Amino acid sequence: MSDNNVTVQLEGKEINLPVIVGTENEKAIDIAQLRSESGYVTLDPGYKNTGATKSAITFLNGEDGVLRYRGYGITELAEKSTFTEVSYLLLNGELPSSEQLAEFESSLAEKSQLPIGFNDIQKAFPSKAHPMTQLAAAISLLESYSTGDSSAVNNENINTVIGGMSSIAANIQRHFTGRGFVTSSSDKGFVHNFLTMAFGEEPNDIVVDAMDKLLILHADHEQNCSTSTVRFIGSSRASLFASIVGGVNALSGPLHAGANQSVLEM
Asked: What is the 3 state secondary structure string of 143-180?
């Protein structure tokens, strides 16, 4: 092995494979040309030893307690940033200016106003259906109201998903507890608005801050099960909405975010 490649022998033939070094000094062997040069493929059950793509978005090392978004440590972001600032960072690679943040938050507030008739359909869901089942169905429903190109990964569709998700999730909470839906309001910020819609009362600042930090901590966790599912579905050029529905269903599993439900029940 040299600094830039490794040499493997297959059936007497030497094959040079590039070595990639990540920003955290993690090393990977690039096997993209392995099949064309040797006829071999690799077998890696569960993708435990495989990185599916290069990414500059997130670095996660759970064993050492490291989580970075776009190079920023999670502790610094949780202390100094809001969820909407972190969302902008993940999407665009840099933290927003005050003008960019105001424009982004305005768009999310607009998209949190669900289309006419949407709430009536959500109310028709069985109230005790699992929240993730309701969420997946509602995101599919959201696409049906799209007037643009729902297959495009653009700001319009991304903001529709993020903004709409807050109202959809709040509606699920209200429906599950047998209470009427609360109309979205944009005057006090994304997290404050979500909590107001979900619980029907003015949240105190401590709860808002705690929820903001919780959302920041969960904003991205590298190429996990649900993220990989979204990427797999999206690779067929399925719409952003359809891809995210797949990710939601993957997320519901008890070995993924469904584990959080088990913890709460305990």
From this structure: HHCCCCCCCCCCHHHHHHHHHHHHHHHHHHHHHHCCCC
CA distances from 234 to 44, 140, 163, 220, 231 (A): 22, 15, 21, 17, 5
Q: Using an 8 Å Cβ cutoff, are 222 and 60 in contact?
A: yes
Alpha-carbon distance of 183 to 166, in angstroms, equals: 11
- As given in the structure block, the two tokens for residue 27 are 């090393």
- Supply the pTM of this predicted model: 0.91
Please give the residue range of the domain that contains residue 21: 5-68
CA dihedral 124, 126, 131, 133 (to 10 degrees): -90
* 219-228: pLDDT as tens digits: 998 989 999 9
**Tokens found for residue 227:** 């993220």
Domain CATH for 127: 1.10.580.10
List, in sequence order, every residue forming a beta bridge with 59; answer none if it has no partner: 68
Phi, then psi, of 142 in degrees rounded to 5:
-60, -40
